[in-house]
């Protein structure tokens, strides 16, 4: 495990409003790490602090063990949330211009540009003006511009938004390949299914505070308890009395039973009372999407003790 980036104790206020409270995490070479959180949680402020666009009030950004020097521009790639930055320029010209800004050799840049244009289904578009491309095509070019110079750290802000399912798959493959070849990737996304599919570790922030930090496996193991969905008309009071049931949600004839953390699923199934009506039953783990909603809406399905232990393992368990 090679720690490429350490963010330590970031604090930031805008006027008298504090938006980051002691934000700390690491990104390792070769991993895809997700930064998650509801709107306004502080993700962009964190990313801007890493990029050196914003100065945090406290804390540091350490790259390759070097503190306070900022990250050299040729070592970092950034796909910002804002899209469509370049209009009246041709695809290849903008890619080569950006590579040159990062001191990357032009012949290699041209070769990489052609390679990625082909991979992302943009072959033959190198002389087209950016404004003539569709939104999705322009976004793919912007992605290429963020990796043209082979950065060690790649920050992707909502890379999949606006892409069709086929393009999403292609981009997923390329992002995974970059991680496999050693790039450290920090990915911000609201699409929890994609995060679940792609990321090794997650950092979740809410109102400027860290709420979850750990490997996806830890998060799942420690937080994504089992839930049992029963289709059939049942009295909620009967379901609530079943051992190991923490909470029941009911809509029409469907009941979702959230179970305690250490439940042994096969044994638990045998404890179901005979009088329960079961037309259909599924038992699965709570998804990252549900974990996110639980935290973002302050439902606190996750007990404080569990959250505490997750935060403790976050930095060390990858
Ligand atoms: N330049 C600024 N001046 C004042 N307040 C700001 C500024 N930038 C961000 N904020 C505030 O800081 C908080 C965190 O914002 P930030 O953009 O980091 O959230 P985010 O997690 O990226 O949200 P989103 O998912 O909506 O992009 C918000 O309350 C926002 O209003």
UniProtKB/TrEMBL annotation:
GO MF annotations, alphabetized: ATP binding
InterPro entries in the cross-refs: AAA+_ATPase, ABC_transporter-like_ATP-bd, ABC_transporter-like_CS, ABC_transporter_ATP-binding, DrrA1/2-like_C, P-loop_NTPase
ABC transporter domain mapped to chain residues: 5-232
Keywords attached to this entry: ATP-binding, Nucleotide-binding, Transport
Domain of life of the native organism: Bacteria
UniProt family annotation: Belongs to the ABC transporter superfamily.
Descriptive protein name: ATP-binding cassette domain-containing protein
Lineage of origin: Bacteria, Bacillati, Bacillota, Bacilli, Bacillales
């Amino acid at each position: 495990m090679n720690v490429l980036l350490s963010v330590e104790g970031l604090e930031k206020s805008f006027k008298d409003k504090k938006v980051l409270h002691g934000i700390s995490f690491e990104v390792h070479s070769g991993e895809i790490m997700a930064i998650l959180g509801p709107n306004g949680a502080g993700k962009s402020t964190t990313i801007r602090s890493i990029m050196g666009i914003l100065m945090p009030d406290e804390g540091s950004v350490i790259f390759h063990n070097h503190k306070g020097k900022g990250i050299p521009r040729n070592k970092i790639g950034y796909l910002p949330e804002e899209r469509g930055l370049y209009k009246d320029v041709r695809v290849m010209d903008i890619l080569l211009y950006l590579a040159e800004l990062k001191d990357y050799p032009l012949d290699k840049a041209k070769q990489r540009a052609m390679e990625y244009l082909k991979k992302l289904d943009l072959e033959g578009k190198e002389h087209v003006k950016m404004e003539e491309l569709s939104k999705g095509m322009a976004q793919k070019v912007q992605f290429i511009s963020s990796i043209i110079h082979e950065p060690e750290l790649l920050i992707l802000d909502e890379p999949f938004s606006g892409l069709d399912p086929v393009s999403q798959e292609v981009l997923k493959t390329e992002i995974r390949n970059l991680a496999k070849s050693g790039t450290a990737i920090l990915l911000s996304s609201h699409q929890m299914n994609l995060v679940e599919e792609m990321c090794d570790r997650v950092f979740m922030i809410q109102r400027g505070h860290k709420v979850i930090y750990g490997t996806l496996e830890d998060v799942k193991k420690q937080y994504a308890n089992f839930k049992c969905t029963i289709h059939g008309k049942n009295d909620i009071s009967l379901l609530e009395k079943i051992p190991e049931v923490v909470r029941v949600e009911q809509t029409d004839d469907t009941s979702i039973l959230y179970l305690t953390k250490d439940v042994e699923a096969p044994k638990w199934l045998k404890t179901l009372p005979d009088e329960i009506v079961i037309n259909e039953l599924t038992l699965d783990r709570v998804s990252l999407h549900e974990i996110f909603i639980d935290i973002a809406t302050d439902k606190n399905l996750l007990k404080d003790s569990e959250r505490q232990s997750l935060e403790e393992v976050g930095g060390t368990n990858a």
